[in-house]
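Entry:
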Amino acid sequence: MKVAIYCRLSEEDRNKQSETDDSNSIQNQKSMLIQYALEQGWEIYNIYSDDDYTGADRNRPEFCRLLQDAEAHRFDIVLCKTQSRFTRELEMVEKYIHGLFPVWGIRFISIVDNADTANKGNKKSRQINGLVNEWYLEDMSENIRSVLTDRRKNGFHIGSFALYGYKKDPQQKGHLIIDEEAAGVVREIFTLFAQGHGKAAIARMLNDRGIPNPTEYKRLKGLRYQQPKTRNSTLWQYYAIADMLTNETYIGNLIQGKYGSISYKSKQNKPRPKELWYRVEGTHEAIIDIDLWNQVQELIRQKAKPFKTGNIGLFARKARCMYCGYTMRSTKTKDRYYLKCSIRHTARDACIGSFISVSLLEKAVLQELNQLAEAYLNKDELQEKLVVNHDLTGKRKRLEADLSRMQQKKQEYIKGLRELYIDKVKGIITEKDYIELSGDFTRERDRLDHMIADYEQQLIRLEEKLKNRDNKQKIVEQYTSLEHLDRPAVEKLIDYILVGKRNPETGETPIEIHWNF
């Protein structure tokens, strides 16, 4: 019998020495479950471990991988410390423990609360456990929400990261104190803008002097920071300056609650109406004095120009610079709209820069779209004429081969860890040797975990594109003979567009369109 061990630890009960270490609780869970499996004479297929995840999180990476392997019947038993380690949701108990696991031929066992699907007599107790865990989740969520709301109303900072220019007060939870080194840069930015310098010009000045942007500054100082969703960079950009100049935190006020969770079962947030925000004045020391703040706000109002108010740009977030990969920024000259590289003018030699008018890009997209339609409808050369993202099928095969090699390598490390543990139990190796060797194995396994997760996400995106490609003729027929594009059409048709710099000799601007089909 092959057994899959699943361990989970959430934020509220973790006890770590450092962010990268498994907590003591996780180690204890693993030791308990490994010992139990060995006593039963079961072969350990794999150990799946999620650290810092709640029992209501359905997107736990190792949990999802466990379910995939269970469906493929790569093992016979799922072993946990308690049923709540697997899930706290009654819906998930019914779906998997009582529903799909029996269909897949998987037995579920949790040691402490004696859950065992091989014992039909304790199904009701498993359901009661699931219901109690569900109530626990709902009550805990409501209690936490109530406490956080109260703290926000009373001017306490609620968040994992302090705004650039501030740091968390180690002596008072929820209070911000000034980080003088970063605050000096903030004051300089406000002063430069008040003196008439533009946002892009200020970014360029900072970049020329080698001053790291907020994310890079926090990384260098060992402070907690939010990972950027787009390409990571050490450079200041126009948007960072623009956001900073209107943030009231710099005059000592806190505005919180701009977003709220959809439900306690989801990590998704949605914007909240402005009247529901929590705004408290004078919660911490100001970096910017009120006179300079008012001067800057007045300049921003004077410089503000109507630009498609209330409407999203035709190619917003779709057009990217061919050379640096950053999303292009919209600009307007007289009555014409343009797209340009967002970092070209914020850092010397950062990028040679891309630039194109919106009308020219629209014309290029329509021209290629009509060419595709002609190939579909008149020549029946769908497979030969349309090559999406340089042969998606070939790329998928390469990704699958690389993923298979990494998974095989990971299994070797897991097997090595299991054998090391058995050698330690038998006294073949010392505790010190075990810790040293297992640490190396664990780090390499974790590195492979991250790579595997990245490759799996790439495969998911490729599969989606391949699926869309199967419907490409229908999609293209729908948009045949368009004279103008609108935003819904762009969203439906285009993944992203790479735009280069105009060739002065030929007068042509290189454009590479990546379609959604």
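Confidence is low (pLDDT under 50) at residues 14-22, 306-311, 379-390.
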